[in-house]
Amino acid sequence: MGCFSCFESKEEERLNQSATDNDDRKDTAHPSHNSNISKLSSGADRLKTRNNVGPRRDPSAPRDLPDANISAQTFTFRELAAATRNFREECFIGEGGFGRVYKGQLDSGQVVAVKQLDRNGLQGNREFLVEVLMLSLLHHVNLVNLIGYCADGEQRLLVYEYMSLGSLEDHLLDLPPDREPLDWNTRMKIAAGAAKGLEYLHDKANPPVIYRDFKSSNILLDEGYHPKLSDFGLAKLGPTGDKSHVSTRVMGTYGYCAPEYAMTGQLTVKSDVYSFGVVFLELITGRRAIDSTRPHGEQNLVAWARPLFNDRRKFLKLADPGLQGRFPTRGLYQALAVASMCIQESGAARPLIGDVVTALSYLANQAYDPISKDDRRSRDDNGGKIGRSEDGVGSGRKWDLEGSEKEDSPRETARMLNKDLDRERAVAEAKLWGENLRVKKRQTLDLEGGSEKDDSPKETTKILNRDAERERAVAEAKMWGENWREKRRQSAQGGNDG
């Protein structure tokens, strides 16, 4: 997993000559000594020169400058036109804010997806270069593979591996009546894989990469519904050193942007976590982040869902009706707990994406069988039972799978994540209390014994009772710990009833 050093601010400005003066110019460079992608900016300069983007160099200079870190292949426009049959409509597979996407076949026989950038669209030269560089330097099973690019004259095209199942949006939102919706297990698998892609960008890249445009249409699906993140034109290098955020112009998609980023332009990895929470809510509910066709009050997914998180009796209303009740009640509550934490108003209150991966890996490794008769649906209303898969390794966090269903609200599930830590703290405090009591008793005995003879009848009586006092102290400590745990249990139960 390669690390890479930050753009120098001046070099980043050269990548974005058409951007506003306030755009992305406060970034500082913190080179990574162990980086194997240490010439990102110089790679951008070579890429611009090679493809007539930006100032030309001496015509006598060799065109194939050694870009050791840029593995993307270059294509001519003629080659890609031939691959897509001159961009015929029968090859058209999708369209976004950056341009149209076509299915094509290279001379080698490889099937590819060719994205032709709209010259009047959202993605300009800078975004084109960023996407080429990012996808050339970052490699992960949950990131789409960039095969090559074309920059002939004013033409800007990107060539990706072909993702046969299209985007998550195609399989989740606004499905026709005759189309089978994604089942619960597949939804959790997609969520976990997409989270792992974000985790790679946030935690493995150095400095971190902030995706900035996480949404269902940017999650592509391969055979077996294996998810990969695509469209890195808006990706941004994250804060380094003691900086808590980077300041940039607000980009992204309405409904998915974190509130602090939308209002201030301050971008952190927690901004991506918020966007992930919105997509995860889409997976759970089957609703769009923004849907103007719904009644007033339900058009914004987050605004509609937040009040429901506070009423346990309404949790089942958050499940996608297309699932027709084929989901585990406990799994739904646990998924809602993760989503609710991701969409917190305050970025500081949101979890790190690594913690999200831990929780979702657990959920994805649970085998829910809607046909099984042991799902206790008769006792759980519309619920189900989660069973551990044979190869499921869980999450590292401990979930109380034997507890009462009514305690599985998002808030209670969040408490459950720390239950073991609380128990250990209670035991430690009880032991400390008992030890302090014994020390105090011992000091008292020593002070009293100092004024008497060691063989006096009074001292002998104290010695005979010392063991009994020690046992009494231990018993009191155990009782204190048990009372403390019972009080915590009653408090948590009262929170659920409220």
From TrEMBL:
It is an enzyme of class 2 (transferase). Pfam families: PK_Tyr_Ser-Thr. It comes from the Eukaryota. Residues 8-68, 372-419, 441-462 are annotated as: Disordered. Residues 55-66, 450-462 have a biased composition (Basic and acidic residues). Its EC number is 2.7.11.1. One of its GO terms (biological process) is innate immune response. It is found in: Cell membrane. One of its GO terms (molecular function) is ATP binding. InterPro entries: Kinase-like_dom_sf, Prot_kinase_dom, Protein_kinase_ATP_BS, Ser-Thr/Tyr_kinase_cat_dom, Ser/Thr_kinase_AS. Residues 31-41 have a biased composition (Polar residues). GO terms for cellular component: plasma membrane. Keywords: ATP-binding, Cell membrane, Kinase, Lipoprotein, Membrane, Nucleotide-binding, Palmitate, Phosphoprotein, Plant defense, Serine/threonine-protein kinase, Transferase. Residues 87-363 form the Protein kinase domain. It catalyses: L-threonyl-[protein] + ATP = O-phospho-L-threonyl-[protein] + ADP + H(+); L-seryl-[protein] + ATP = O-phospho-L-seryl-[protein] + ADP + H(+). ATP binds at K115. It is a lipid-anchor. Gene3D superfamilies: Phosphorylase Kinase, domain 1 (3.30.200.20), Transferase(Phosphotransferase) domain 1 (1.10.510.10). Belongs to the protein kinase superfamily. Ser/Thr protein kinase family. This is non-specific serine/threonine protein kinase. It comes from Saponaria officinalis (Common soapwort).
